[in-house]
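Anyone able to model this chain together with nicotinamide-adenine-dinucleotide?
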Amino acid sequence: MGRLEGKSIIITGAGSGIGRAASLLFTKEGAQLIAVDRTEGVQETVEQVRKAGGTAEAVMADAGSEDDVKGFVAKALSAYGKLDGIWANAGISGGLVPLPEQTPEHWQEILRVNLIGPFLAIKHTMPHLIKQGHGAILCTASVAGLKSGASGHPYAASKAGVISLVQTTAYSLSGTGVRINAVCPGLIETGMTKPVFDGARARGTDHKIGQLNPLKRAGQPHELATMGLFLLSDEASYVNGQAFPVDGGLTAS
Ligand code: NAD
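re: yes, here you go
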């Protein structure tokens, strides 16, 4: 029996990195998946899931658009007849633009995807989860939302916003049986951080990557997927309203 056996789950940002690793792990653990991404990478994710014997449908959609969010929630309900959880994981970094060069448009796009996206995911899944009296929501924040560091300002602000959104929503969900949590990844080797890793490899400094945390290495996408699996499963039945760093100990120092 899988740890997510028979659960209908949506993952956004499933076309790459953490979302793809979670798609593969969750379906291996029995989840019926709606994999969402705005790129064609989501088709490749679903092909990999099916090849491994799992159940998944791909939806190409923008996780920051209310119409698209309504669409992929409806798809989960029509495909599997119910919804048990969502991982609002899609995000963009926005790069490291010096503050004087940042524009309101630059901020708006990062906030739209990274913060309004999770808000919309919560808004449109909540009614279904509440109606059935159980369910779990997970949002991807970042260590950048917990402490200052090398991230861009709008990215860090968007991720701090996600943590606050999760904490506030836990109270809005009081008495419903629905849980909500966040994960805060440290430096993880994915599509988003590829330029960092490629640049370091080109300079021969890749051995220094991740040296700021006590484990002295970067994380891999499956190391986030395993945390997501726990938090969306019934094993985490008393875990609610929290933001968990998965960062090799970076924020412990
Ligand atoms: P990634 O780039 O490999 O994957 C992100 C996926 O999200 C991509 O497939 C992308 O197409 C998709 N996406 C972006 N905007 C979207 C939108 N509007 N609608 C639908 N899909 C969209 O990066 P990742 O590292 O796997 O990122 C996953 C999450 O983890 C993000 O929220 C990111 O901010 C967060 N995170 C990553 C790191 C890291 O070091 N990689 C650290 C902290 C937080």
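Strands lie at 8-12, 32-37, 55-60, 85-88, 135-140, 178-185, 243-246.
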